[in-house]
Structure formats: C-alpha cells, structure tokens
Amino acid sequence: MSTVASPVSLGYSASLVGPRVVSIDVFRGLTMAAMIFVNQLSSVPGLPWWTYHAPAQVNVMTYVDMVFPLFLFIVGMSLPLSITQRLKKNPSMPALWVHILLRFVSLLALGLILANAEKADSTKMIISGNAWALLALISAALYLNVYPKSVRFPSYSKLLRMLGFVGAVVLFALFRRTANDGSTAWIDFSYPEILGLIAFSYLAIAIVYIPTRRWNWAAPCWFAAFVALNALSAANLIGWPVHLPLYLWPFNNGSMVCIIMAGVITCGIFVGANGRAPVSRPIVLAVSFCLVILMVGWVLTPLGISKIRATPTWSLYSIGATVLIFSLLYWICDVKLRTGWAFWVRDAGSNTLLTYLLPDLWYFASACAGFTIIDAYFKTGWPAVVKTLAFTFVILALAAALTRFKVRLQL
C-alpha cells in the first residue's frame, strides 16, 4: 500500500510550451522509482534508521522524508504547463475550472479508495475489501485511460469510460465498514490518503495561481506567504489552519502548498509558462533560489525539522534539495544531452499515474488470489532490500510495457 505520494503530474501531458525539457520526464521517472522503493521498504524491519521516515518527536529528516516533497514539487512544475496547454486548446475559463474540479474529484476518489480498502467490512459487503479496492481501481483506470482512436469502433472509448464511471459509482455505493462505535458506516473521509491530500493542495494552488499567473511577481509572493503560514503554524502562533477541514481550508498549514509553489517558480525558471521564455541562465538562478531557501530553512530550524509535523525547515530543506537535483538533471539531460542512461525511468515519468497505481493493483490482486509466496521469503534485513529493488524494477518494466501497449492514465 502506498505511503507516499504521486504527483498530480500523474497524468499530465509532458509536452511543453516551448522546446521539450527532457529532464522533467526523467525527474518524474526517478521520483516514481523512489516512491515504489521506499513504500515497499517501509514494511521491512531490521534496517538502519535512515531507511525509514523519521519519528515525529525527533528533529531530523531522512531521504525517505523527501519523497513526498518530490511529488508535490512536480505538481507545481506541471501546473503552469497544463494550464497553458488547456487554455490554448480552449480559452474558456469556466471550462478550465470544470477541468480542474474533475481532476480534483478524480484524485480524491483514488485517494479514498486506497484509504478505505483496509477498513472494508466483508461481512457487510458482497465482496472482500481487497476485491472491492481492486475493482474500484480497475474502474477508475477504465475511466481515466487515454484510448487510441479507432476508425472501426469510434465509440468504444466512450463506452469503456462510461463502464469505468458506472463501476466506480456502484462500488462506492456498495462500500460498508464498521465504525468505532460498532455501527455500520460508509466511506471514511477523515484521511483521504496521500492522493487526496495532493488533490486538496492542487486545488488550493489553482485557486491562487490561475487569477495571478500573468504577473511574474505573483508566484514568489505566494510562496513567501505560504512559508510564513507554515512558520506561524509551527510556532503555534496561529492554530486555525490545521483545525479547519480541508474542504474549507485546502491550504492546511502551508507546508504542502509552499512546496508546490516552489515547483511553479522552478518551472518558470527552466521552461517558462504562459507564453514566456525561460530565463537565459536558468541553472544559476535556480541554484541562487536554492541557497536562499536553504538559508531561510536554517533560520527556521528552532521550529523543528519533521515531515510528520510538516515543519517549515523540512519543507524548505526538501525544496532546496529538489531544486538542486532538478538543476543537475537539466544540465545532464538538456544541456549535455545525455539521456540514454535514463531509459529505465522514462516511461514511468511519462505515465506516472499508471506507475503509481501498479503496486497497489499488484497488492490487491495478489491478496485476492492468496498469492503470498513472494512475501514469504526475504522478509528482513538486506535480503529484503534486494527483493524490494527487484520489485521496483519489475513495476517500472511493467509500466513501460503497458505504456507501449497504449495503456496511459491521465487525469
């Protein structure tokens, strides 16, 4: 089961406003590989402390704590490109907002499926929780798949999308769980899983970015405001951001949205958006941006360093490291044109939603079939690490094969 997130670039088209920036696909692919690896590794005991999420009460962060910010950062990098492409196809703002809301609902629905699978009460449903989640994800995939055009059967894609939509609605209607008080309850909305959290953060950024996207100063100002919100929340000077439900205040304590907005700023540096060209020396500006962020993060260290508590230093250190990683990939892939080494992650980077869901589909399918032979061996220590690496490469290879067979999920 997933414990970290996938980006809302989950399904965003990779075509860009200007010349294609190959490092974006490579960055996405490497992030997907890291996500699969750390999710699988999280259940392996007996490894060094830095191979897991740092405990909430400890002021430290591990490389595992950076995987979620990598996804959030890609959400930000993808957002300006997606909006620009959408407006070029259809300049209608109401149509754009309908599209954004559909993406929000789709991500939230996927998050609720993953969050509620283990809560399903099979005695109150006609199927088990694993079967329910598997069928729900398959239904979602049928709805979200990008189907090739067919001259012979031009309406087949509409029929499959409708089948997926109806299937998902029926499965949500069938869901039942046992609440804490023993009563029968429906879907639990209290925690929408990582995809649901990304859905609310994506909506929050869209709300502030779209009306102000034409002003170059807007994104840095929003970023500073979100960092300030995060710092004030961590210092307990304001408490309402974390007490309001996400559907009323999707900005939460500011940590996730500040990471996404950093991705928006980085997109403007390297790619440009809204018809603007990227800056002339993007790596220099990006590294300067990184150094400022790291310095502010160091200043805010007394507020703690913790992913679990979503402190500003965790957010800013993650942003700084991510900007450096992307700058290096940009120099390798787009300046030096060295891209052959990334063959194993390119398809995962261009088909991220499918790649994100494949481990969960495997988990639910194997649970339904009672297939546990793989998990029965190499359960602890470094042998389990080797098994986890093998699983990661298998999922990446499967994603590549499905992509070549025209299976592509897009929000």
Structure, described:
The structure is a single chain. By secondary structure, the chain is mainly α. The protein has 14 helices and 2 strands, in the order H-H-H-H-H-E-E-H-H-H-H-H-H-H-H-H. Strands 1-2 form a two-stranded antiparallel sheet. Strand 1 (177-178) and strand 2 form a beta hairpin. It is globular and about 55 Å long. 45% of the residues are buried.
Index terms:
about 400 residues, mainly alpha, about 60% helix
In a nutshell, what does this entry contain?
By secondary structure, the chain is mainly alpha-helical. The chain contains 14 helices and two strands.
| Chain oligomer state | single chain
First-residue to last-residue Cα separation: 21 Å
Q: Give helix and strand order, one letter per element, not per position.
A: HHHHHEEHHHHHHHHH
Structural class: mainly alpha
Query: What is the number of helical segments per DSSP (H or I, 4+ residues)?
Result: 14
The number of E-state strands comes to 2
Q: Give the amount of beta strand, in percent.
A: under 5%
> Which shape, going by the Cα principal axes?
globular
SSE layout and pairing:
Elements: H1 22-41, H2 67-89, H3 93-116, H4 129-144, H5 156-174, E1 177-178, E2 184-185, H6 193-212, H7 218-234, H8 240-243, H9 255-270, H10 282-299, H11 312-335, H12 343-350, H13 352-369, H14 381-404
Antiparallel strand pairs: 1-2
Helix pairs in contact: 1-2, 1-11, 1-12, 1-13, 1-14, 2-6, 2-9, 3-4, 3-6, 4-5, 4-13, 6-9, 7-9, 9-11, 10-11, 12-14, 13-14
